[in-house]
Design goal:
- By secondary structure, the chain is α/β, with parallel strands linked by helices.
- It folds into 2 domains: 2-247, TIM Barrel (Alpha-Beta Barrel); 256-329, Non-ribosomal Peptide Synthetase Peptidyl Carrier Protein, Chain A (Orthogonal Bundle), CATH 1.10.1200.
- The chain is built from 14 helices and 11 strands.
- It has helices at 25-33, 46-50, 54-58, 78-90, 105-108, 120-133, 153-162, 185-192, 210-218, 237-247, 256-274, 276-290, 298-306, 310-329; strands spanning 2-4, 7-9, 14-16, 38-40, 44-45, 69-74, 95-100, 138-143, 167-171, 201-204, 224-227.
- The chain has an 8-stranded parallel barrel with strand order 3-4-6-7-8-9-10-11, surrounded by 6 helices. A two-stranded antiparallel ribbon has the order 1-2.
- Helix 1 packs antiparallel against helix 11 (256-274) and helix 9 crosses helix 10 (237-247).
- The longest helix has 20 residues, at 310-329.
- The radius of gyration is 20 Å and the shape is globular.
Length: 330
């Protein structure tokens, strides 16, 4: 059994990575239904929270069916981060996660996200004060380092553990790599193999098949997998990974009607949570993956992706459900 503070998780848990405009409540709920053991919110700006910015406070919405759920914050200013922790605590999440890994320029240039990898003492001191500020378990998501020359992640993880974090998730790339090249899991395994480490070490990056998750568990000895891009438009991925880990057998892909039903539910939930315009816009990034590999689907997918009227999209999805259900019955 794996524990984050007092939160008990199954052996080798699967975590939904925090992803901007992706890991919102509707998507988190779908992933949870399909076997995600822990889900994280989109990352939330500490500066936005303390200024009561609508976009930031909206991201604090969490629901009972998602638990255990972590709220992820980012920033580089101690006062702002502590203020954000106070606000987050009131929403009663299970975990507070600190983002020290986002490689996006507008975040990094403020010394936040992966930008803090240039200043490890600040990273450690910030974390220490955040841990002291809250009774909730604090976790960290970060990268191997700023660039290849500055990788000291084994030492960094140990220092973060020593100031009180309860788990660490490592994306196996540097900030300089962004999302290019292969994730280096050997560096994450080196953290896990450090005899001084006793908190869970989760791997992130390139877990894009059930076989990869098994490799992360069996060959690299990590405590769990944090899954990001492979889950977009594919909440079944968690269930498929678990099935493979438990049985050694690949689970059959859901049929096209099932994919369309999930896409429909996703859109309906998104509209309910964030309104028609944003609901339609932000669910678009999932459609390509929902219908990946479906033959002769290009025109239908194009109509779904370009349509702004949710009623018409839902009608289009109903048609897919009916048409493909009949084809698959024949």
């Amino acid at each position: 059994m794996i524990k984050i503070g007092n939160i008990e998780l199954p052996k080798f848990p699967l975590l939904l990575a925090p992803m901007e405009d992706v890991s919102d409540p509707p998507f988190r709920a779908l992933c949870k239904e399909q076997g995600a053991d822990v889900v994280y919110t989109e990352f939330i700006s500490s500066e936005g929270l303390i200024r009561n910015a609508a976009k930031s406070t909206k991201k604090l919405d969490i629901y009972t069916k998602e638990r255990p759920v972590g709220i992820q914050i980012f920033g580089s200013n101690l006062e702002s981060m502590l203020g954000a922790v106070d606000i987050v605590e009131k929403t009663n999440p299970d975990i507070i996660d600190i983002n020290y890994g986002c490689p996006v320029k507008k975040v990094v240039c403020k010394g936040a996200g992966a930008g803090i990898l240039k200043d490890i003492p600040l990273m450690v001191s910030l974390t220490k004060e955040i841990v002291k500020r809250t009774s909730l378990p604090v976790t960290v998501k970060t990268r191997l380092g700023w660039d290849e020359k500055s990788i000291k992640i084994v030492e960094v993880a140990e220092r973060l553990q020593d100031v009180g974090i309860k788990a660490i998730s490592i994306h196996g790339r540097t900030r300089a790599q962004m999302y290019k090249g292969d994730a280096d899991w050997t560096q994450i395994a080196a953290i896990k193999n450090n005899p001084r480490m006793h908190i869970p070490v989760f791997g992130n990056g390139d877990v894009n098949s059930p076989e990869k998750a098994k490799e992360m568990r069996d060959e690299y000895g990590l405590d769990g997998a944090m899954i990001g891009r492979a889950s977009i438009g594919n909440p079944w991925f968690f269930d498929q990974v678990k099935h493979y880990l438990n049985t050694g057998q690949k689970k059959e892909e859901p049929g096209t009607p099932e994919k369309a039903k999930m896409a429909k539910r996703h859109l309906e939930m998104a509209i309910k949570w964030k309104g028609e315009v944003l609901g339609v816009l932000e669910t678009r990034r999932h459609y390509g993956n929902y219908f990946k590999g479906v033959p002769n689907f290009k025109e239908t997918k194009s109509r779904i992706l370009n349509e702004k009227d949710p009623t018409k999209i839902l009608q289009e999805l109903d048609q897919v459900i009916n048409n493909f259900a009949q084809k698959e019955l024949v």
